[in-house]
Amino acid sequence: MASLVLEELDRLRRRAEARLADRELRLVRSRLAEKSGVSVKTISDWFNHKHAPRNLDHLLAVARILARWAELPPPVPRQWSALMAADRAPEAPSQERTPPSPPAVPGVGDLGPDPLPGPGGRAAPGRPVGELADPFSLEVHRAIEVPPAAGPWDNGRSETLPLLPAYVERVHDTRLREVVQQAADGVSGMVVLVGGSSCGKTRACWEAVQELPAGWRLWHPIAPDRPQAVLADLAAVAPRTVVWLNEMQHYLLTPTDSVGERVAAGLRDLLAEPDRAPVLVLGTMWPEYWATLTGTPQPGLADAHPQARVLLSGAVVPVPDTFNGPALKALRVAAGGDPRLARAVAEADQGQITQYLAGAPSLLDRYRAAPTAARALIETAMDARRLGHARALPHALLEAAAPGYLTDGQWDTLGEDWLEQALAYTAAPCHGARGPLTRMRPRPGDPYPAQPHYVLADYLEQEGRTNRRTAGVPPQLWNALVDHAAVGSHVDIARSAGLRGLKRLAVRAYSVAAAHGDTFALLQAAKVLREADRTDEAITWYQRAAEAGDSFALRQTTALLREAGRTDEAIGWYRRAAETGDSEALQQTLGLLREAGRTEDAMGWLLRRAEAGDVNAMRRLAYELQSEGHPQDALPWYRRAAEAGDIDAMRRAAGLLREAGAPDEALAWYRRAAETGDTYALQQTVGLLREAGRTEEAVRWLSARAKTDDAFAFQQMVDLLWTAGRTDDALDALRARARSGHISALLRAVSLLREAGRADEAVEWLTAQVETGDAGLRRPLVDLLLESGRGEEAITWLRGWAGTGDTSARRRAVDLLLEADRTEEAVAWLRERAEAGDVDALWQAASLLQQEGRTDEALTWYARAADAGHTSALLQAGDVLRRTGRVAQALEWYQRAVDAGETDGAQQIVDLLLEADRTEEAVAWLRERAEAGDTDALGQAASLLQQEGRTDEALEWYERAAEAGDVDALWQGAFLSQEEGRTDEALTWYGRAAEAGETSALSQAASLLQGAGRIDEALEWYERAARAGDSEALWQAACLLQEAGRRDQAVAWYRRAAEAGDVDALWQTAFLLREAGRTDEAIDWLQDRAEAGCEFVLWLAGDLLRETGRPAEALARYRRAAETGDTFALRWAAELSQEAGRTDEALEWYERAAEAGDISALRQGAELLQRTGQVDEALAWCRRAGESGTVFALHSAVDLLRRAGRKAAADQLARYGWEPGGDIAQPWEARPPG
């Protein structure tokens, strides 16, 4: 069975090696041995997996040094101990049972199938990653179904394809893998993949978690709903857990912002807690949700997502919608083994492979070709989702809203079963992928809904959000959303209605949410009304929220009342809140009354509240009286509040009584407060009793408190006894408490005995406890013996413990012997330990002798260790000799180490020879190694000679290394030749590197020639590089020619680069041609590029034509660009028409841009109409902008009406908003529910 300890140690070692390499250092085992005090042989055996660690102290010593070098937190002993225990556990008797896993080791990738319980002993959520076999349960999209054809997967018979197509990595996978590896190495992290629907985000996360080591779990919180699932179990998440948050917006963008913020704050805490590391949070999200959560809040508005913004900062990894470049090439190779990939490569539009695999094109085809009723149903679902409804869409909602998407004629021709037929159409799978709109099936154990619910395909949801942004929403949908939306959706629906100026519907939706107990909805409705200058009604909603206990609503209510000059009403609201026990409201009432100059009323009201039994009022009245210098008047009220259980009043009453010379009554109140756990009151009680000479009573009282597990009371009792001179009583109390398992009591007793000069008794106490097997008290016992001058006993104890395998005891014993100048005795004892089988004693003896300057004796011990099979001792001996200047002997020992298989010895020999200025010998030695088959020695020799400035010899050795197959030697030879100014030789080396497959060497050679001013030769090399597939070479060559003033040639190279897919080169070509006055040529070339598939360049051609005064031709290019889906071109066409004074034509272009989803086109169209005096038409455009959710629309419409002199209509629109049909709403009342 593999050793869990060794695998963890391997990960820690690799992390240390990587960090050392960053500083151009390497991990040398002899140095690790020196730093940790553990033998090189032992460390080598562990690293080579010859045996697992058997000594925890040794293991921790090595892990501590490795962690320091790896820049990680120090190891946690109990966790490494658990790993060792798991290693020692017997193997399970059958394959169906596995041994329990050890806990996670912070800073290291962890192993084992099960983690420790979560905090508080709760079972950690999640399942072992190794048990996850169903990617679809984690919401990975199913792939399309394709009948198998003859190929590698068939072999003459029909076999089932894998669940998922072969995975081809892209750039985002590299960053994702880095974070996953960091988590495996012990560092918590989070990645959120951001990209469009079905672009491969969730699949990338699935592939990444497969790389995690055994022992990791994955937690996918989804029930009862996603945010609540996180909040319910987040505190129980254990180390080595992946928190899987697919569609992360469902967790952070919640109807009540505070819920999402709590989730974000909890995740931040989890990632920051070292005791729960490592954890890995993986999320996915669409770009629009990312923008909402991370965008800067608008000035003057509350910041809705501060926690989420900080959580997501720096965590984004964008996922492209398409495959291109190397990824596309790799995909084509993989397609040879999977017909699904083959079809995607052949048929996917513009590299949208993952979307095709998820059935996206089929979904779009199904939607676009749908019968009228089915299309209406799909668009109903699209709009409902973009307007804020939850993912699960109720049947009643779809049934009520879909008719609004049909004309009268379409509706009249439908059959009675139109809905069933439409749902059947939308439910049919698309090549095995889920249909456009499908019914959700409750899982076993989940509550069964009262009506069916349906879910819209992700891709169509995104299609709706993109292409229906400016589409009008039928009134039937708005009404259905208010009447039939699922509980929990109304707040988001109301928010969408509010953004669109549908104030009545917004308040209605908030009212429904409030009727279901959502206080937040009351506040939001009040905000809508307040912004509409309907203050009285807003106050009513705030009041309802205040009645529900919302303190913010209470403050808003009173603020509005005060703004309206209705101070008495504000005071009344605070009074009513105070009468429910709200202490803050009580203070606000007093403050408002005083601001109004009604101090007597304030005190009178406070007195009446106190007399009515209001405890807060009693305490506050007493405080006011005390502050005004009337303590005798204050005391009765403090007493009454204290009698009602107010702890603060108890303390204040006691304080006044004490000052008034009534200690007994003060004592009674302090005692009552102390019995609630108030430590201040407890101290005051003891102080009063001592002042009264009633120490014994204080002891009895504290003893009684201590028996209730009041640790503070026990501590105070011991202090009291000790300071009163009752030493034995204090010690008896501590002894009794220690017997019940409180080691802290024993240590306190030992400390007190030492202070009293009774160290021998303290030793007896500790000895008795140590003899029961409590190893944790060994060190305090030794320290106490040494302080007492009983060093020999300390050494005796340490020797005994060392005999049981306690290495720290052995080291401490040796240190004490050395301090006593008993070196020979220490050496003799270590020899005994070594002969008894404690091999590490050999190393300690050798190290000891070395420190004493007895090098030859130390070497003898190292030799004995080496003879025993610990060959790394040879390296240690060589290091000793090297430090003492005995070079020849050091070389002999290093050579013996090399011969014994210790590869570190080779580098030590070379380094030592160089230090001794014996370069030739170093080279000769490396030559011998090379001739013996060590090919690395060739490169080492070349590098050595290069450092010595012996260029020709170095090149000869690089040549030999290259002939032996070392491609890096070709690069090194080229670099060295280039540094020495031997350009032609460098070119030869670069050429050979290219022939060996290093095609980037061609561009390197070209760059060298470019620097030497040999432009034409550089171009030849760039040409070779380009033919080898290096498209960057085309750009570099073009830049070279442009800098050299050879513009025509530069244009030719830029053109080639553009034709190879370099977009920057495309712009540069057009720029150079225009700069040279060759605009027509630039336009023609851009036209050619557009016909070759680069249709996005049409707008650039349009710009060039516009600059040269050819608006008609520019307009034609913009039109063609628009036909390819470039919505910006539509707006540019509109601007061009506007410049020409063709308003109607400009409006047509703005109209088309708006239909294509360009919301700003609506604003620009409205402004154009306004400037031309077409007020009603401008209002219609503002209304359409409002339908798209544009915040400015309603305010712009109001301003437009006012400027047109239509004040009444402007005021009505500002107060009541629009109706879904587009009319200004008639006055309506806004009453809160209930």
TrEMBL record:
Residues 86-131 are annotated as: Disordered. TPR repeats lie at residues 871-904. Residues 32-72 form the HTH cro/C1-type domain. The keyword Repeat does not apply. CDD domains: HTH_XRE. Keywords: TPR repeat. Signal peptide: none annotated. InterPro entries: Cro/C1-type_HTH (IPR001387), F-box_motif (IPR053301), Sel1-like (IPR006597), TPR-like_helical_dom_sf (IPR011990), TPR_5 (IPR041656), TPR_rpt (IPR019734). This is HTH cro/C1-type domain-containing protein. The lineage of its organism: Bacteria, Bacillati, Actinomycetota, Actinomycetes, Kitasatosporales.
